[in-house]
Recover the amino acids of this structure.
């Protein structure tokens, strides 16, 4: 019997295989180097441009003339070669691919480490670098070592002000930053079935922070219903009994609001232990927590209140932004004193739109708090949206549940 | 595939943001990455890397998929990286740009000569030779070619 990775890659764990890539994507950051590598490989055509996407999300719009020139070249190439091209403001690549594009059972490769996010659909989704991607552009396939799998059994349900991000930080803390290196994660058990697609995307997004090749959910009726809204009919994937290299049990009702302390994602503590720590900036967004459901939770807390530190909210995609405008959430968020960014990665990678200064502390809903990532000498704490919203109002790290 | 150089010892869990910071990525000037390699870890490190073998703790190269991290090490003159484990995207990236990686838990002494041969699968320091897990035949071929670009050029 097979794990989901073995089933999709059609080989047992440990084997090296060549497989056709159903969908491949790059962003403005990795795309430049991919294009250069593809040219240097001999410009031998694109295997199937309809399966390739170029999505501008990392530095959008361009922050200086060097970036603008690099984007200009990549944009021109993407358009002239008939790849799927999403320009500035369409959203974060992983989010755009999650809006009715990626389907269960597909092999998806992104030139970004958080491509594992799309395992939420029961796809085998993983990240590669620019050279690998250039070869995929050319050949339509790549090699994989079929990963061993860690099974994460979820029981019970989240309670109080906890959310999927707290659960994600919980497993990252337990496995550690290299706890799943070369392996994949499968989220299973009765409670996995109860999680929404947005929650699944959060859990799969953090998989790479444990070194995992991907994080996966079996496509089920929740997946079926979500994809039906985009016009897709899918068949659920039934789990088989299979061999996991390791199993982890997490009781969801035991989870409390958690926070990752810089500079490691696996230094995870209860928010309670850090309560009172002053913050300079709050950032809500990214491929982890910038979806519409995140904005709903954020707005429900800040509505009628005022944030007391600068707070940057960046919707994950144009769809998210449009929905937040339509339902009035955006107005609530702006009235509470927040600023809204352009759909994309925002300041997560420390390039623009909210870089922090020496000695500053940012509370972020993103997935990385590495040294200097958002700005030299700044510190990044990672939390859920509810913790970020509550802390933004108070101006210091605060457990959610008070507003 | 084989070589020797002076060891530069580094800690575990060195992420690719630390290898080359995001603020230096938006360029095609590769020499810039070599100049700024490890700037946020130790600004004095870059000039010491020419002809060196980095001996790091586990999970080297975790985090971002940026291939510039592997290129930066190559540009700075690093001959190979030895670590008990590597993050998988960095692993592929390094081989793809022709930078040898060696999976071994080596006791590191700064400046000590480390020699290696990936075709035969060993690494040696302090007079002690250790066998290491062989790279897959495909990865060896890519490395022999000098990286994935050269590998595919050669297949014309």
């Amino acid at each position: 019997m097979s794990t989901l990775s073995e089933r999709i890659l059609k080989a047992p764990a440990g084997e090296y295989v060549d497989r056709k890539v159903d969908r491949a994507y790059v962003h403005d950051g990795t795309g430049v180097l991919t294009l250069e590598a593809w040219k240097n490989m001999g410009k031998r055509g694109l295997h199937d441009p309809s399966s390739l996407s170029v999505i501008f999300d990392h530095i959008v719009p361009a922050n200086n003339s060097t970036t603008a020139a690099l984007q200009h070249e990549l944009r021109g190439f993407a358009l002239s070669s008939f790849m799927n091209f999403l320009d500035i403001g369409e959203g974060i690549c992983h989010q755009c691919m999650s809006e009715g594009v990626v389907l269960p059972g597909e092999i998806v490769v992104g030139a970004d480490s958080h491509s594992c996010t799309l395992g939420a659909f029961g796809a085998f989704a993983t990240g590669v670098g620019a050279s690998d991607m250039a070869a995929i552009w050319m050949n339509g396939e790549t090699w994989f070592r079929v990963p061993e799998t860690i099974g994460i059994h979820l029981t019970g349900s989240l309670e109080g002000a906890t959310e999927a991000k707290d659960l994600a930080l919980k497993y990252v803390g337990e496995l550690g930053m290299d706890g799943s290196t070369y392996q994949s994660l499968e989220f299973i058990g009765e409670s996995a079935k109860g999680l929404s697609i947005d929650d699944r995307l959060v859990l799969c997004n953090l998989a790479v922070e444990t070194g995992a090749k991907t994080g996966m959910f079996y496509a089920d009726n929740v997946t079926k219903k979500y994809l039906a809204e985009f016009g897709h009919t899918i068949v659920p994937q039934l789990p088989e009994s299979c061999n996991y290299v390791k199993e982890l049990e997490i009781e969801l009702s035991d989870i409390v609001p958690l926070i990752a302390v810089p500079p490691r994602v696996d230094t995870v503590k209860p928010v309670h232990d850090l309560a009172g720590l002053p913050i300079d900036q709050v950032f809500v967004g990214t491929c982890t927590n910038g979806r519409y459901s995140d904005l709903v939770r954020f707005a429900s807390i800040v509505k009628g209140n005022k944030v007391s530190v600068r707070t940057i909210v960046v919707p994950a995609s144009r769809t998210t932004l449009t929905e937040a405008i339509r339902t009035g959430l955006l107005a609530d968020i702006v009235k509470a004193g927040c600023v809204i960014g352009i759909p994309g990665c925002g300041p997560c990678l420390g390039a623009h739109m909210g870089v922090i200064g020496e000695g500053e502390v940012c509370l972020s809903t993103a997935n990385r708090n590495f040294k200097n990532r958002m700005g030299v000498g700044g510190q990044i704490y990672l939390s859920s949206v509810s913790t970020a919203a509550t802390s933004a109002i108070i101006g210091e790290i605060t457990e959610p549940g008070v507003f | 595939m084989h070589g020797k150089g002076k060891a530069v010892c580094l800690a575990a869990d060195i992420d690719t943001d630390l290898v080359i910071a995001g603020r230096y990525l938006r360029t095609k000037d590769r020499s810039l990455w070599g100049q700024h390699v490890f700037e946020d870890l130790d600004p004095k490190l870059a000039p010491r890397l020419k002809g060196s073998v980095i001996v790091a703790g586990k999970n080297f190269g975790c985090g971002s998929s940026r291939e510039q991290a592997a290129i930066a090490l190559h540009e700075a003159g690093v001959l190979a990286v030895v670590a008990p484990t590597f993050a998988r995207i960095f692993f592929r990236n390094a081989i793809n740009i022709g930078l040898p990686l060696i999976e071994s838990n080596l006791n590191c002494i700064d400046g000590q000569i480390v020699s290696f041969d990936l075709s035969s699968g060993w690494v040696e320091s302090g007079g002690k030779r250790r066998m290491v897990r062989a790279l897959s035949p495909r990865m060896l071929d890519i490395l022999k070619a000098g990286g994935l670009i050269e590998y595919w050029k050669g297949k014309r």
About this structure: The mean pLDDT of chain A is 97.
